[in-house]
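Troubleshooting log. The previous run stalled partway through. Resubmitting the same two chains, unchanged.
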Amino acid sequence: MMRRGLAGQRLVATFLGGALLFNYPVLSLLDGSEPFFGMPMLWACLFVIWALLIAVVAWIAERGAR
Amino acid sequence: MLSGTVVVAASFAYLLVLFAVAWYGDRRAEQGRSIIANPWTYAMSLAVYCTAWTYFGSVGRAASGGVWFLPIYLGPTLAMSLSWVVLLKMIRISRTYRITSIADFIASRYGKSHLLGGLVTIIAVVGMVPYIALQLKAISSGYSVLTGSDDSGVFPFATASWFNDGTLYVALTLALFTVLFGARHLDAAERHEGMVAAIAFESVVKLLAFLVIGGFVTWGVYEGFDDIFARAFADPELAALLSLKTASTAGYGGWFAMTLLALLSVIFLPRQFQVTVVENVNEQHLRRATWLFPGYLLLINIFVLPIALGGLLYFGRGTVDPDTFVLSLPLAHGERGLALLAFIGGLSAATGMVIVETIAVSTMVCNDLVMPLLLSTERFKRSDHPDLTGLLLGIRRGAIVVVLLLGYLYFRLAGEAYALVSIGLISFAAVAQFAPAMLGGMYWRGGTREGAFAGLLAGFVVWAYTLMLPSVAKSGWLDRTFLDQGLFGQEFLRPEQLFGLAGLDSISHALFWSLTANIACYVLVSLARVPTGQEATQATLFVDVFSRGQDAPATFWRGSAQVQDLQPLVARFLGAERARRMFETYARERGVRSIAELKPDAGLVQFAETQLAGAIGSASARVMVSSVVQEEPLGLDEVMDILDEASQVRAYSHELEEKSQALEAATGELRAANERLKELDRLKDDFMSSVTHELRTPLTSIRAFSEMLLDDPKIDLKDRTRFLGIIVSETERLTRLVNQVLDMAKIESGHAEWHNSDIDMRDLVGHAVETTEQIFRDRGAVLELDLPDHALHLRADRDRLLQVLLNLISNAAKFVPNDTGVARVRLTCEAGQLRVDVTDNGPGIAPEQLGVIFEKFRQGGDERARPQGTGLGLPISRQIVEHFGGRLWVQSKPGEGATFSFVLPLSPEAGDGPDHAMT
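Second attempt completed without errors. Output:
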């Protein structure tokens, strides 16, 4: 029960972190007009953050299953 | 280009495969070996979120707005990270109360209201019809691109007559499929295993197809991501797409609105509710879906921007509709097979959405719109239908066909004016209106029926005025003047700048005003009055679903019904055979043998109502059950009393439990303390009796010899000297005993004096051996000494340590056999501590005696053969050694002698302590 409560709180924290990263003003920091390793900076950054977010959520959700 | 026959044949072949999957899923479910009962299938079925709008529309959106296609998928990712909080609760509530649609959820929460259910259904139908139209449009335009029947990508059929319109047949085929998938038979829980299997299959197909096309464009047409982006950066018009600021005028506010919209949609879209909540087999599956579904969204979006840029680079702007790049790019490169695969992927996305959405909407239409109307007509009430399952199925099937035809109608009337993505967003904004009533209902007890109704109505009206009407007007079916000049010529009523609010894109604008109106009305109207008994009941059942557990919900009305009345009622809607089975199962759970023995209590009524709710909706179930039940609804006060009572009882019992646990713990402690005290008392008694016994022996002999000397003054000198000698030695023994007892008491109470100094242990042992050698010699025994080469210094009380050594050596002397006795004293140094072993070849100590000899007044050996001694030597020695941080122990085998050993740390901390303070 404690463990589940903890996983729930971690997920809410992840949600808040994601909401912060995917919005103004953090978004404006990532929005460069120059290529970033040959890719559009915003596009690449969004996908990287997105993938990291999914990884974190997966870690929390699957860990709680044990 | 491909021939129409090939495309149609491939499509039908694909639909047949789909049907085979569904059929297999259903068959396995009947055998009890479900193929959808695993988290992977569940997560894949959630991907029904990705429709043709994602498949074709995202590319179109990326072609005009760059990264602006992404918020639609970032929102669901965020929403899924909250799944453990929101979705799990929705699943639990729906499962516990047999809720099968959003309309039913809201109606049930706010006092099982027909009116609310109807309103939600209407919003859902109005909101979803354009979305379904969008899917039809995608299939039809995809077909025309593939067959080349229209180069511009606009529809070939729009001008043709209805009978020649292929899209109509597409709609009808999909209707037939949906009926076969979703309304073949009636399920009390509205679950469709076969359909879910097919949807999961479709999700895999559309993902693979899209990835293949993406890979083809990225590496087949161009030379990887770098190449495409380098070319795009070189073109100033395309480079503008790659930054958020330059790609759209909506700004960060628009980005936020879009994310929020998608976040709400993924929870409240009817089809998402259907797959996430209704079709959920096991709550634990949600755990994996929480990350797998967002992962799916990420994968299907990776190639969107490359395809869009690739298409724009290849075709240039304005020649080919970007919505069809997925098809036209492979076609333009002569890859007809790939194009057909892309079309099948799109067909997958479209049919999946249409099937689930129409099933969800038709359930709502049947349970929350048609059934309440039917039940309210007098004729229906009076007529005696024995079995209504056929009627229910008929309504469902009719609703499916009607909804699809409405979608077709919308497609015919307005479909051409808008790109795919705008239609999708309009639908998203419609379902966002459910959010306040749904979320408020799950977490806030105060929401009332009127509040929910006012909120939904206000949100819906504002949505229709600010988003729906402008879209209709823009497609030419309404006079546009109200768009620019406002309703009745009032400027502040302009739909897209309501009250003069400018600077937002139309979606953000509509979302802001509709949600504001919705939430304000919901909260304010709810706060106008206290909830009724029924509302409070439902509020408690919903909000506290986790703390109430899985067992039968509390019943809040007085009433009873005979099973003879309830069973036929359930049988009317679910079929006689099914109803009988359900009641039998219930009877078994209740522990009675047959249905007839069931007690006519509130629990039975609740059971029947829940079963009915699954089939006809909670509000209708309430009406039907109340028609056969003698009941009086409870008022708010009574409900609150029951709730308070229940929660108070819970609180009391919890408190009681805690207290009794604390009491038990305290009792245990007390018992242990008592035992210890008793033990100490017993030890004290033993000690006293031992001391007095030991004192009495010398005293007796002193007294006897003294009396003899006193009585007979004529004793000769030789005897007198002998007697006096005995008296002296006995007195010495007494003194020694008293000293030792005092010593012991002092050490034990910590009042002993310790005179620490630096001593050489080698000297000390040597000295002890010298002192005791004579005793051994007297007995004809040998004392051997084994010393290390170097001196061992430590800081301790010399006299005390000597006392220990003398005690151990003299003990050995007492026990070694006469003439053959050998004792050995050995001093060694190991691991920072010195060790002294005193070994003898005496009789040894029996194992059971090993622990005892260190107790006071307990001597080893046979009671009679025991040598002289006070029985305090070893306990005192042990106390001394332990005082200096060491350890004293004995090893022995009977018949092989004994070895007493002690170790002392070379820099004993206790010895460093105060030399004089311990007085």
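Takeaways: Residues 2-64 of chain A form one domain. Strands of chain A lie at 35-36, 39-40.
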